[in-house]
Structures are given as C-alpha cells and as structure tokens.
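Think of the structure tokens as a kind of shorthand, similar to the way a musician reads notation: each symbol stands for something richer, in this case the local conformation of the backbone. In the example below we present two proteins back to back. Begin with the first one, reading the sequence and then the tokens, and try to describe in your own words what changes along the chain.
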Amino acid sequence: MAVQEKHRFDEQALARFMAANVEGFTPPLTVEQFRGGQSNPTYRLTDGAGRRYVLRRKPPGKLLPSAHAVDREFRVIAALNRTDVPTPRAYALSEDVSVVGTPFYIMEYCDGRVLWDPTLPDVPREGRLAIYRAKFESLARLHLVDYAALGLADFGRPGSYVARQISRWGKQYKASETEKIESMDRLFEWLPANLPANDETVLVHGDFRLDNMIFHPSEPRVLGIIDWEISTLGDPLAELAYLCMLWRTPKDWNGLLGHDLDELGLPTEAEMVGYYSTLAGRAAPEPALWEFYMAYNLFRVSCIRQGVYARSLDGTASNVRAAESGKLVKPAADLAWSIVANMAGASR
C-alpha cells in the first residue's frame, strides 16, 4: 500500500544512505509500505534497476522499554546468513535518526509466498503436509544452530528463559493494561509458581509462525524467516509450543481447532511435535510439561496483543488492523487458564 502519513520519511535521505551503504543500489528510489508488520513499520523499496529491498524501522512515538529492537533483528539475521537457516540477506543497519526519523535496517526482498491461512486453501491438498514439514524443519534447523560460534553467546542469558519471559511480558502488559481481566491476574500468580525444571538454551525466533515465513513461489520450501525483533537465547520447547498453539486455537482466531484435519490433508499436533523432536534429536515432551508451555504461550500472546492494542489507541501501531488485537486479549487469557484448570483436574 502507499506509505501511511504517520510513517512517511525523507525518501531522498534514504536513497543517499543506500547509495553509500548498499552495494549495487541504483537510484531513483520508490517506497511502498507493507500492510502487515504489527510492531515495526515495514517497507518495500525498489531501485532504478528494478531491484527490491525491505526496510524495517522502529515506529515513531513513545515506545515500551526494550521493544522494537531493529538492531537485534539485523544482528541475528546477519549471523544466520552464514548457516542453513533460511533468512533474507542483511544489507545495512542505521541508528542515525536523521535518515528516516528512527533506527532502521535494510534486507533482501524474498520474492515468494506468505501463507496467512493455516488451512492452506491455495495449496493442493496433497501438497499441504510438505508445507507443514518445511516450517517445522526450519524451526529444528534454528534450534540446532551453534549460537556461540556465530558470535551470539551474549544475545541473551542462558537458562530461566520462561521465568524471564513471564516477567518481561507481564511488565509490558501492566504498562499497557486497559482493563482488568481475572484470568490474567490468575496466570500472573500461577505461572511463576509452576515453572518447568528443564533449562536447555538455544537460539529462538520469538514469534515463529507460518506468516513470518516467505515460501518459494511454487515449492514447499522456506526462502526466508522474517520478523526477528524478539529473538534471543531461549527454551526450544517454549518456541515449539508457540508454533503448535495453532491446533489449540479456534477458526475465528485463524487456528485449526474445529477443522477436519484429515479432510484438509493436514497433520495433527502430535504428529508435528514428533516430527520436530526427531529432527532436533530431542525426546517428545511429557504431557504435563507440554500443557504448561501451552498455557504460558497463550498468556504471552495476551500480553503481546495488549501491547499492540495499546499502540493502536495512542496512534503508534503500524498495522491498520492493530485495534482488533484488543478483542483477543481476554479470550487468549481465558483459554490459557482453562488449560491450567484442566491440568489441575487431571492431577487430582
């Protein structure tokens, strides 16, 4: 779409920066804005030779602490360019606010498909399983990366990931809270009191899901994983469960719950957990542990949605549908608490 008024910047200043910092760039520059990108405004750039790039920048306005870390995004993408994890090529990072008004980076434009609907209606039934396998294969590759060898040993703190995430997102939730939600208050108490004992550390994306991947135009192959803003060192099971929330959330949340998976040619949650575990060389998680991670992730989703919703109220959200995020805060929290209640019932 055309660049939103609130996200406009000096395009000539950007063209001058690219001429000096992006090899092969040819003026003039054309700028468009992607409709997606809940957190950081994202733009498609086209140069005079027809080459395309993507620009990700911090949004203007008052921001939550530690949010919108485009410098971290650039660092991890540049490091992963040296591995078999599919990532766009990282070109340049700028923290000079005189160029576009906020820090930004430029990366490769991957010319492929973004698959928004998990039922894959535009993919033939016989090709859908391969798409699912490709995204779980990409996750396993990421979790097998030697992050220290890539110079990312200081990219986060090893261990206690879930505890720190609950604290971090909880603080951001409270900073953007717009109403009291009983199930959220209960989760704030229950989750820290029931933390898992496992402490494995891997490099995690932080928002690993279908629509944060660019697929090849015709093959079941991931060209690039995008939106690395909240990547860090973390718990592989927490990230796996985040991807698998798809099977626990209903159709109107764009989930798979309520769909006939066999008719659609789609795998079950258990099948994909087993597939990932084999690829990553890990044992499948115990049921109680797995349910904890599900509840934790739904809590985290509520916190993230609340932040997006709050930004829509103050006008700094980049996504035109950001205001809709507020509608899912309470339902996600309620679903998380129902999982906790079921766990408690099963243990009696």
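Once you have a description of the first chain, move to the second and do the same.
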Amino acid sequence: MPFVVLLLGILLLLFLIIKCKLNTFISLIVTSVLVALGLGMNPASIATSIKAGIGSSLGELVIVFGFGAMIGRLVSDAGGSYRIARTLIDLFGKRKLQFAIVAASFIIGMSLFFEVGLVLLTPIVFAVALEADVPFVYLGIPMAAALSATQGFLPPQPAPTAVASALGANIGQNLLLGIIVAIPCVIVAGPLFTILARKFAPEAFVVKKSLPAFGEMKKYDLKDTPSFGLAAFTSLLPVILMAISTVYDMVVNGGKTVANPHGITAIVSMFGNPVIAMIVTLLFAVWSMGFSRGKTMDDITKTVTEAIKSISMLLMVIGGGSAFKQVLIDGGVGKAVQDVMSHASLSPIILAWVITVILRVSLGSATVAGMTASGLVTPLMQSMSVSPVLMALAIGAGSLAASHVNDAGFWMFKEYFDLDIKQTLKIWTSLETVISVVGLLMVLLLSLFI
C-alpha cells in the first residue's frame, strides 16, 4: 500500500505542476499533506513532519545557497567570470576550444548555478564560435556538460549539498570523490558526445551568424576586469577550504571526523564547514570583486540583493522537496522500501540511482528527485552499511537523467541554442542521460575501493 500511495502522490504532483501550472512549492506542500493522510499518519503530526523536513534542509542551505548566489553574482558583475573564460580560451587556442570551454565551465560551474552559468557563458561561447567559424552547438555541448555535472555532483552546489546532508555524508569527501566522478562524465558527455551528436543530429550543427534573444549582454574590456588568478581564487575559495579540511582529516585523523576537535583540528574543521567556508568567501568576494574594483557599498548591496531574489523560489522548492521526503520517511515508505529490498540482489547504489531516475523523469526537478530519493534510500543505506558518500553520488547521477519537457533546463537549452524540440531531445536529453549513466558507472567503480 505505501508504494501505491507513493505512486499516486508522484502522479498528483506531476499533475499539479504540469497540467494545473500550480507553483512547484505549493504543489509539493499540498501533495505532502495528501500523501501523509494516504499513508495513515496521525493528522495532528503532519504539520510537524512538514516543518521538520523543511527545517532540516534549509537550516544549512540558506547560508550555503544564498551566499553562493551572492558570490557568483559578485564575480560575474565584476567581469571575473568573463576573465576566467577568456584566459582559458586564449590559453588553449582555437584547435582545442572544446577543452577550453570545458575547463572554464567546470571552474565557473563550481560557484554558479546552472542557469546563471548558462546565461553568463552563452554570449562568450557564441562569440568564440563566430570567431572560429564553428557551430554554436559544437562548443555549447561541452559547456552544458560541465555546468550540469558540477550541479549534480559537487558541493557547495545546493542539490548535492542537500542530498549529502540528508544522508549524513561528509561534505568534503563528497566534493573530492564528486570531482573524480564528474571529470569522466564531462569528457564523455562533452567532447566525445559531440562527435556522436553530430551524426544523429546534423541539422543542429550549422554555423549561425545571429544569437537568439535572451536579454541584454554585458560586455567587458579585459583591462577593466579582475586578474585571472584573483577571479579564479575567489570562485574556488569554498572548494579550497573544504578540500583542505578533508585532506587534513585524511592525513591527521585517518579519514575520520573528530566529534569534539580542539586546537588546530578545530580551526581546520571550522573553515572546512560549508557554512563557514561560504561566509569567509563572501567577505573576501566583497573586497576582491567589490571594494578593490572601486565599487561602493551601494553597488555591492544591489548585487547581493539581486542574487537573493534570483534564488528565493528555488530555496522554497528545496524546502518543499524536503517536506515531501520527510513525510515519506515518517509515513513508512522508506521502511517499506527497505523491507522489499532487504533480500534483493540489486546493489543499493543501483537502486538509489533507479529510484532517482524515475523521480527525475516524472517530476523534472533534479533537486526534488534527489531529495525525495535520499529519504527513500536512507533506511536501506543504514541497514546495508553502504557509504553515504557513494549513495549521494549515485543519487546525484540519477537526478541528471533524461531531462525533458518538464525540466526548465530543457527549455533554456532549446532557446539559447535556437533548436527545435526534436533537436533538443536528441542533444540535451541524451547529453544529460550520458552524464547520468557514466556517473553511475564511476560510482560503482569507486565502490570497489571504498
């Protein structure tokens, strides 16, 4: 019965979002209440379960997600992201443009959300494509692959951070292993997939002389932008701080997180925490991308305010997804999954991926799919002693699969690259699925050693 209620709940959520065009957050909360009743929960405890789910996820993510948006916007508005992209493109040369785009997108994607990164890099990549006389999609595919992979696997991006937190995975380890998983995904789904895509969607690979309209483009003079080193350091500072903490734990503490650290260990642990790392980086970005560029506090305040506005609803959606997840846990769906799979021969990692893929295809949102799946597999993970980090990465891989018409990324890719729906399904949907499958294979490979 719990599985029937779950299926009906997913169908209802899909109906509310797609057919009724109801706001995603409202749809999630309404569905959570109805599913809770269907699962036989005490009506008096439903509100408590929903609040617990929202609070457990947003307690940390408000700072990580919010400050991340501010940092990305500060770097972008100062021309730092443009400097990073142009420097790498000039360094690689025209013959290796795809790898330049991959490197630039990967770096930028660590600190920017997919949508922001796509908006930022699209005009730059198009300008390079015009100069090199190559199809826009030829450079766009590796760009999209790199941006997408960072969103699925690498903290401090919101979805992987939220999933890792829900599963109790170490964020630093999730980051380091996520990079190991993401790099092959980007190579296969980027430059290599481009070769295949050119064969089954040749109509998309034409040299275009005009850029689809998507708003005013900011143009920067390189002499007025921050240096490459400063821009890259600002963007990657949270990653650097978390990596230092993880390496320190591996070398000094044997890979274990100390419960009540003291001295240097306490200091390293503090700066390696995603919340503190983002606070430190934001303060540094205010100077490096603000005051040092001659900007006033009013300019900086305007930038960070716009950044918060751009991600406020997405934060609500994450909270709604967490509420739905908590209802499923409290309502016994996770226990039912555990009971059904307790004697199954299917790997828990593969199961986590399959569940997430089903949710992703049904709901469209990678974040909602990942958060819901994390609630379903948590009891199974605990009972079978599977690494939380590997489970988080498997869920991250599944959350990227088969993006189609119920995903905002699908429409962004279509419009920015001036494709029709058929071409977008052939290229974008296939690209996302390639990342998902390669990501699963990499996680299974890591499971042999961890």
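Compare your description with these statements about the second chain. The chain has one domain: 1-208+218-447.
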